[in-house]
Amino acid sequence: MIRTATEHDVPGILAMIRELAAYERAADQARATEEQLREALFGEHPAAYVLIAEDDESGRVAGFALWFPRFSTWTGTRGIHLEDLYVRPDARGAGHGRALIAALAGICRERGFERFEWVVLDWNEPAVAFYKSLGAELLTEWTVCRLSGAPLAELAASAPEVSGRPVV
C-alpha cells in the first residue's frame, strides 16, 4: 500500500533517512532532526512531501519517497524532483520501490507535470539498473553542482542587496 505520510510518520521517516545515508556511505551528513522534518513536511509552507510504502501483509513501513515540485523554464511546466527513494533491505524485491515511483508518476500525470527527475549515485548499480528497467533516461551530460559550508557562506557574504525578495 502507498499512502501520504502524516506527522505520526516523522520519526520513522527520519530513521529511514539515516538508514539511507548509511547505505550511501554518508551517515555523518544526515543531520536533520524530527523538528526540522515536521516543519518542512507539515508546516505552514511545506517544502517537500512524502509517500510511504507499507507492506500489505504486515502493515510495516517498507520505504518512503520524499519529493518536491520543481519548475522547467524550457517546458513552462512544473515537475517532480524525487529527493530520496528508500526501501528497507528486508523489503526489497517486493515491488515497493516500483509502487512509490509509479505513484509519483501518477501525480505527475494527474497534475499535468511533464518531468519527473532525480539523481542516483553512479556506484549504486542496483539502483541504476532498477531505474533503467523503468525506462528512466540517465542524463550523463549533466553534472550536479553544489555550494555548501564555507564556499556558500563566502559567496553569500558578497551578495548584493535584493529588493522584493520572495519569502520561501
UniProtKB/TrEMBL annotation:
In terms of Pfam families, this protein maps to:
Acetyltransf_1
What domain of life does the native source organism fall in?
Answer: Bacteria
Keywords from UniProt, A to Z, are: Acyltransferase, Coiled coil, Transferase
Q: Which Gene3D superfamilies match?
A: 3.40.630.30
| Coiled-coil boundaries | 13-40
In terms of InterPro entries, this protein maps to: Acyl_CoA_acyltransferase, Diverse_Substrate_AcTransf, GNAT_dom
The record places domain N-acetyltransferase at: 1-157
Name of this chain's protein: GNAT family N-acetyltransferase
Species classification: Bacteria, Bacillati, Actinomycetota, Actinomycetes, Kitasatosporales
